[in-house]
Amino acid sequence: MKRTLVTASLMAAGLFSLPTLAADIEVSVTNLTHGNHFTPLLIAAHDADSHLFQVGTEASAALQKMAEGGDIADLDAAVTGNAGVTSANPAMGLLAAGMSVSEVMLDTGDNTHLSIVAMVLPTNDAFVGLDSWEIPTEAGTYTMYVNAYDAGTEVNDEIINGGGMSGVPGIPAAPGGDGGANGTGVMDSSDNSNVHTHPGVLGDMNPAGGMSDLDSRVHRWLNPVAKVVVTVK
Protein backbone atom coordinates (compact mmCIF):
# COMPACT_ATOMS: atom_id res chain seq x y z
CA MET A 1 0.00 0.00 0.00
CA LYS A 2 1.34 3.44 -0.90
CA ARG A 3 1.83 5.86 1.94
CA THR A 4 0.43 9.35 1.68
CA LEU A 5 1.23 12.75 3.13
CA VAL A 6 -1.65 14.90 1.99
CA THR A 7 -3.44 13.15 -0.89
CA ALA A 8 -4.65 9.68 -1.67
CA SER A 9 -3.25 9.65 -5.22
CA LEU A 10 0.52 9.30 -5.19
CA MET A 11 3.02 8.09 -7.75
CA ALA A 12 5.69 5.61 -6.79
CA ALA A 13 9.21 6.47 -7.93
CA GLY A 14 9.79 2.93 -9.18
CA LEU A 15 8.09 -0.38 -8.48
CA PHE A 16 11.26 -2.43 -8.64
CA SER A 17 13.88 0.03 -7.39
CA LEU A 18 15.70 -0.76 -4.21
CA PRO A 19 15.83 1.89 -1.47
CA THR A 20 19.02 3.88 -1.15
CA LEU A 21 20.20 5.91 1.81
CA ALA A 22 20.61 9.64 1.28
CA ALA A 23 23.36 11.60 2.99
CA ASP A 24 23.17 14.64 5.22
CA ILE A 25 22.46 17.68 3.08
CA GLU A 26 22.79 21.46 3.19
CA VAL A 27 20.15 23.50 1.37
CA SER A 28 20.02 27.14 0.27
CA VAL A 29 17.07 28.93 -1.37
CA THR A 30 17.29 32.28 -3.19
CA ASN A 31 14.29 34.42 -4.15
CA LEU A 32 14.86 35.39 -7.80
CA THR A 33 11.87 37.72 -8.19
CA HIS A 34 12.11 41.49 -8.49
CA GLY A 35 9.65 42.54 -5.80
CA ASN A 36 7.86 39.54 -4.33
CA HIS A 37 8.31 37.76 -1.02
CA PHE A 38 8.20 34.09 -0.13
CA THR A 39 6.18 33.26 2.95
CA PRO A 40 7.79 30.83 5.46
CA LEU A 41 9.54 28.02 3.59
CA LEU A 42 9.05 24.34 4.25
CA ILE A 43 12.05 22.19 3.31
CA ALA A 44 11.24 18.50 3.69
CA ALA A 45 13.04 15.18 3.21
CA HIS A 46 10.73 12.20 2.78
CA ASP A 47 10.36 8.83 1.09
CA ALA A 48 9.93 8.23 -2.64
CA ASP A 49 6.19 7.63 -2.47
CA SER A 50 5.32 10.93 -0.80
CA HIS A 51 4.52 14.35 -2.26
CA LEU A 52 3.61 17.76 -0.85
CA PHE A 53 1.98 18.53 -4.19
CA GLN A 54 1.75 17.07 -7.68
CA VAL A 55 1.19 18.93 -10.93
CA GLY A 56 -2.05 17.82 -12.58
CA THR A 57 -3.75 16.74 -9.36
CA GLU A 58 -6.16 18.54 -7.06
CA ALA A 59 -4.58 20.48 -4.20
CA SER A 60 -5.02 19.08 -0.72
CA ALA A 61 -6.49 21.22 2.06
CA ALA A 62 -3.00 21.50 3.55
CA LEU A 63 -1.55 22.73 0.24
CA GLN A 64 -4.40 25.22 -0.14
CA LYS A 65 -3.62 26.70 3.28
CA MET A 66 -0.02 27.21 2.27
CA ALA A 67 -0.73 28.54 -1.25
CA GLU A 68 -3.44 31.02 -0.24
CA GLY A 69 -2.21 32.13 3.17
CA GLY A 70 1.35 30.90 3.71
CA ASP A 71 0.39 28.44 6.47
CA ILE A 72 2.82 25.48 6.37
CA ALA A 73 1.78 23.86 9.68
CA ASP A 74 -0.39 21.10 8.20
CA LEU A 75 2.16 20.18 5.51
CA ASP A 76 4.91 20.11 8.13
CA ALA A 77 2.84 17.84 10.38
CA ALA A 78 2.08 15.51 7.48
CA VAL A 79 5.77 15.09 6.66
CA THR A 80 6.94 14.49 10.22
CA GLY A 81 3.98 12.21 10.87
CA ASN A 82 5.18 9.99 8.02
CA ALA A 83 8.76 9.68 9.32
CA GLY A 84 10.07 12.58 7.23
CA VAL A 85 12.26 15.41 8.48
CA THR A 86 11.76 19.13 7.89
CA SER A 87 13.18 22.58 8.30
CA ALA A 88 10.16 24.83 8.81
CA ASN A 89 10.58 28.59 8.36
CA PRO A 90 14.40 28.61 8.17
CA ALA A 91 14.41 32.29 7.13
CA MET A 92 12.52 33.17 10.32
CA GLY A 93 9.77 34.94 8.41
CA LEU A 94 9.43 36.29 4.87
CA LEU A 95 12.19 35.84 2.30
CA ALA A 96 12.41 39.10 0.35
CA ALA A 97 13.28 39.48 -3.33
CA GLY A 98 16.95 38.87 -4.01
CA MET A 99 17.55 37.40 -0.57
CA SER A 100 18.72 33.89 0.33
CA VAL A 101 18.45 31.51 3.24
CA SER A 102 21.49 29.24 3.39
CA GLU A 103 23.17 26.57 5.47
CA VAL A 104 19.88 24.82 6.16
CA MET A 105 21.05 21.43 7.41
CA LEU A 106 18.94 18.27 7.17
CA ASP A 107 19.84 14.85 8.53
CA THR A 108 17.81 12.92 5.97
CA GLY A 109 18.15 9.52 7.61
CA ASP A 110 16.37 6.93 5.45
CA ASN A 111 14.55 9.61 3.46
CA THR A 112 15.61 9.83 -0.19
CA HIS A 113 13.62 12.72 -1.69
CA LEU A 114 13.44 16.48 -1.14
CA SER A 115 10.50 18.87 -1.50
CA ILE A 116 10.29 22.63 -0.94
CA VAL A 117 7.23 24.92 -0.86
CA ALA A 118 6.36 28.51 0.04
CA MET A 119 3.65 30.94 -1.05
CA VAL A 120 4.63 33.73 -3.45
CA LEU A 121 3.38 36.98 -1.89
CA PRO A 122 1.38 38.85 -3.09
CA THR A 123 -0.59 36.39 -5.24
CA ASN A 124 -3.92 34.62 -4.92
CA ASP A 125 -2.58 31.06 -4.72
CA ALA A 126 0.88 30.88 -6.30
CA PHE A 127 3.65 28.96 -4.58
CA VAL A 128 7.26 28.12 -5.28
CA GLY A 129 7.57 24.35 -5.40
CA LEU A 130 10.12 21.57 -5.71
CA ASP A 131 8.32 18.23 -5.92
CA SER A 132 9.98 15.07 -4.63
CA TRP A 133 13.48 15.56 -6.07
CA GLU A 134 15.62 12.46 -5.61
CA ILE A 135 18.58 13.34 -3.40
CA PRO A 136 21.82 12.15 -5.03
CA THR A 137 23.87 9.68 -3.03
CA GLU A 138 27.11 11.01 -4.50
CA ALA A 139 28.65 13.91 -2.57
CA GLY A 140 28.61 17.21 -4.41
CA THR A 141 26.73 20.45 -5.04
CA TYR A 142 23.56 20.44 -7.14
CA THR A 143 21.78 23.56 -8.43
CA MET A 144 18.17 23.83 -9.58
CA TYR A 145 16.01 26.69 -10.84
CA VAL A 146 12.49 26.26 -9.52
CA ASN A 147 9.14 27.40 -10.91
CA ALA A 148 6.05 28.74 -9.22
CA TYR A 149 2.81 26.79 -9.42
CA ASP A 150 -0.85 27.69 -9.16
CA ALA A 151 -2.74 25.66 -6.57
CA GLY A 152 -5.92 25.93 -8.65
CA THR A 153 -7.94 26.77 -5.56
CA GLU A 154 -8.61 30.48 -6.14
CA VAL A 155 -9.25 32.72 -9.14
CA ASN A 156 -6.26 34.89 -10.00
CA ASP A 157 -8.16 38.19 -9.71
CA GLU A 158 -5.15 40.06 -8.25
CA ILE A 159 -7.37 41.85 -5.75
CA ILE A 160 -6.10 42.66 -2.24
CA ASN A 161 -8.98 42.59 0.22
CA GLY A 162 -7.44 41.45 3.48
CA GLY A 163 -8.25 37.82 2.77
CA GLY A 164 -5.97 35.18 1.38
CA MET A 165 -6.35 32.47 3.99
CA SER A 166 -7.63 29.06 2.98
CA GLY A 167 -11.01 29.31 1.32
CA VAL A 168 -11.14 33.13 1.53
CA PRO A 169 -10.82 35.04 -1.77
CA GLY A 170 -8.24 37.78 -1.95
CA ILE A 171 -4.54 38.43 -1.52
CA PRO A 172 -2.79 39.22 1.75
CA ALA A 173 -1.50 42.80 1.61
CA ALA A 174 1.89 43.18 -0.02
CA PRO A 175 4.77 43.89 2.37
CA GLY A 176 6.02 47.46 2.19
CA GLY A 177 2.67 48.94 1.25
CA ASP A 178 3.36 48.80 -2.49
CA GLY A 179 0.03 47.19 -3.38
CA GLY A 180 -2.89 49.09 -4.87
CA ALA A 181 -6.62 49.23 -4.16
CA ASN A 182 -9.99 49.38 -5.88
CA GLY A 183 -9.02 47.13 -8.78
CA THR A 184 -11.82 45.67 -10.86
CA GLY A 185 -10.23 42.23 -11.09
CA VAL A 186 -8.15 40.55 -13.75
CA MET A 187 -10.26 38.41 -16.05
CA ASP A 188 -9.06 34.82 -15.72
CA SER A 189 -10.99 32.40 -17.91
CA SER A 190 -8.94 29.38 -16.85
CA ASP A 191 -10.97 26.51 -15.45
CA ASN A 192 -7.95 24.41 -14.44
CA SER A 193 -8.68 23.48 -10.82
CA ASN A 194 -5.63 21.21 -10.53
CA VAL A 195 -2.12 22.27 -9.58
CA HIS A 196 -0.46 23.73 -12.67
CA THR A 197 2.39 25.99 -13.72
CA HIS A 198 1.53 29.56 -12.74
CA PRO A 199 1.33 32.04 -15.65
CA GLY A 200 2.68 34.91 -13.54
CA VAL A 201 0.83 38.10 -12.64
CA LEU A 202 -0.27 40.98 -14.87
CA GLY A 203 -0.62 43.93 -12.54
CA ASP A 204 -1.07 47.54 -13.68
CA MET A 205 0.34 50.98 -12.83
CA ASN A 206 -2.78 52.50 -11.27
CA PRO A 207 -2.51 52.40 -7.46
CA ALA A 208 -6.09 53.60 -6.95
CA GLY A 209 -7.98 51.54 -9.53
CA GLY A 210 -7.39 49.72 -12.78
CA MET A 211 -7.87 46.00 -13.15
CA SER A 212 -5.27 44.83 -10.60
CA ASP A 213 -4.14 45.78 -7.11
CA LEU A 214 -0.62 44.58 -7.95
CA ASP A 215 1.95 47.05 -9.27
CA SER A 216 3.34 45.58 -12.48
CA ARG A 217 6.61 47.49 -11.97
CA VAL A 218 7.15 45.67 -8.68
CA HIS A 219 5.19 42.41 -8.65
CA ARG A 220 5.34 41.20 -12.25
CA TRP A 221 7.25 37.91 -12.51
CA LEU A 222 7.83 34.96 -14.78
CA ASN A 223 9.35 31.56 -14.04
CA PRO A 224 11.69 30.49 -12.58
CA VAL A 225 11.25 32.25 -9.24
CA ALA A 226 13.82 30.51 -7.03
CA LYS A 227 17.30 29.03 -7.08
CA VAL A 228 17.88 25.98 -4.92
CA VAL A 229 21.35 24.69 -4.15
CA VAL A 230 21.73 21.32 -2.41
CA THR A 231 25.10 20.18 -1.08
CA VAL A 232 25.29 16.46 -0.36
CA LYS A 233 27.86 15.79 2.33
Radius of gyration: 18 Å
Instruction: Provide the β-strand percentage band.
Output: 25-35%
The tally of strands reads 11
> What's the pLDDT, averaged over the residues?
89
Helix content: under 10%
**C-alpha termini separation:** 32 Å
Low-confidence stretches: 1-19
Structural class from helices and strands? mainly beta
Q: Tally the helices.
A: 3
What is the makeup of the main sheet? 7 strands, antiparallel
Bulk shape: globular
**SSE arrangement, N to C:** EEEHHEEEEEEEHE
InterPro entries: Spondin_N, Spondin_N_sf
Keywords: Signal
Protein name: Spondin domain-containing protein
Structural features, described:
By secondary structure, the protein is mostly beta strands. Helix content is 9%, strand content 27%. The chain has three helices and eleven strands; from the N terminus they run E-E-E-H-H-E-E-E-E-E-E-E-H-E. It has helices at residues 61-69, 73-81, 216-219, and strands spanning 25-31, 37-38, 42-46, 85-88, 100-106, 113-121, 126-134, 140-146, 148-150, 196-197, 226-232. The strands form two sheets. Strands 2, 3, 4, 6, 7, 9 and 10 form a seven-stranded antiparallel β-sheet that branches. The longest helix is centred in the first third of the chain and has 9 residues, at 61-69. Residues 35-154 form the Spondin domain. Residues 172-199 are annotated as: Disordered. It holds the Pfam family Spond_N. This is Spondin domain-containing protein. Residues 1-22 form the signal peptide.
SSE topology sketch:
Layout (H helix, E strand, L loop, with lengths): L24 E7 L5 E2 L3 E5 L14 H9 L3 H9 L3 E4 L11 E7 L6 E9 L4 E9 L5 E7 L1 E3 L45 E2 L18 H4 L6 E7 L1
Antiparallel strand pairs: 1-5, 1-11, 2-6, 3-4, 3-6, 6-7, 7-9, 8-11, 9-10
